[in-house]
Design a protein that fits this description.
Length: 244
């Protein structure tokens, strides 16, 4: 079955199905998806996503992004939009200030690493909502703007909760570098190394999120239980629903 869903207006809409877990099972196909912005979906794309069985779109974008590029599923009769992103950015956007740095590439890397360290805690409420929907048996898509950072970390948490080994979690994260069409989001005049630091998925970024979890909670299992409310019984129920 194809992991990448071929759409006209979106390039990074992917199925998380098929990944094998440590106990020999696998994530169900056509159950959990991840994507870049859903604002650019065409009418045909909307029908395709509905035909996949998606009932919920988990939007992790900031309120400003949601207002500037509204989801095509707002007020849709088959797909509910959950606005799970922060009301405001936790700090200044790097793209608004990169020209002030003496070393934009290094500043971009530092900025992304710090963001990833914060994601598991800033978005804990969003993750709780995602898991609640999965536990209710819903089929959903998790997305942000690029489908790389916020959606990428959320997808990593979901796959980890389902028992997918860390190396496969990282493999899935890195697929954004193959599929995502940036669509001209790079600021004019930005050098290639800085563009790469901002717009590429890098293993060290996602590793920073896991390192922060382990530093604060001692491990992902404790984080999922204490921060997300996914105790042993609920995690077993989640696996029964989402694995084959």
């Amino acid at each position: 079955m194809n992991r990448l869903i071929d759409l006209e207006g979106v390039s990074n809409f992917r199925d998380l199905g098929g990944y094998e877990t440590a106990d020999g099972r696998a994530v169900k196909w056509r159950t959990i998806f991840r994507s870049d912005t859903l604002a650019a979906l065409t009418d045909n794309d909307v029908e395709t996503v509905c035909d996949l069985g998606v009932t919920t779109a988990c939007d992790l974008r900031y309120a400003e992004e949601r207002a500037n590029e509204p989801s095509r599923f707002l007020d849709h009769d088959r797909v509910e939009v959950l606005a799970l992103g922060l009301a405001e950015r936790p700090g200044a956007a790097f793209l608004d200030s990169f020209e002030l740095s003496d070393d934009p590439r290094a500043a971009a890397r530092t900025y992304l690493l710090e963001n990833y360290r914060q994601y598991p805690f800033l978005y804990a409420g969003a993750y709780r909502a995602i898991f609640e929907r999965l536990l209710a048996g819903e089929q959903l898509v998790i997305h942000c703007t690029a489908g790389k950072d916020r959606a990428g970390t959320a997808a990593a948490m979901v796959l980890t909760a389902l028992g997918v080994p860390r190396d496969l979690v990282f493999d899935d994260y890195m697929l954004t570098n193959i599929y995502w069409d940036r669509g001209g989001r790079e600021p004019p005049g930005m050098d290639a190394e800085t563009v790469a630091a901002i717009f590429s998925a890098r293993a060290e970024y996602l590793a920073a999120a896991f390192d922060a979890i382990e530093s604060r909670h001692g491990g992902v299992d404790a984080y999922l239980a204490d921060e997300i409310g996914l105790d042993t019984a609920r995690r077993a129920r989640l696996r029964d629903l989402c694995l084959v």
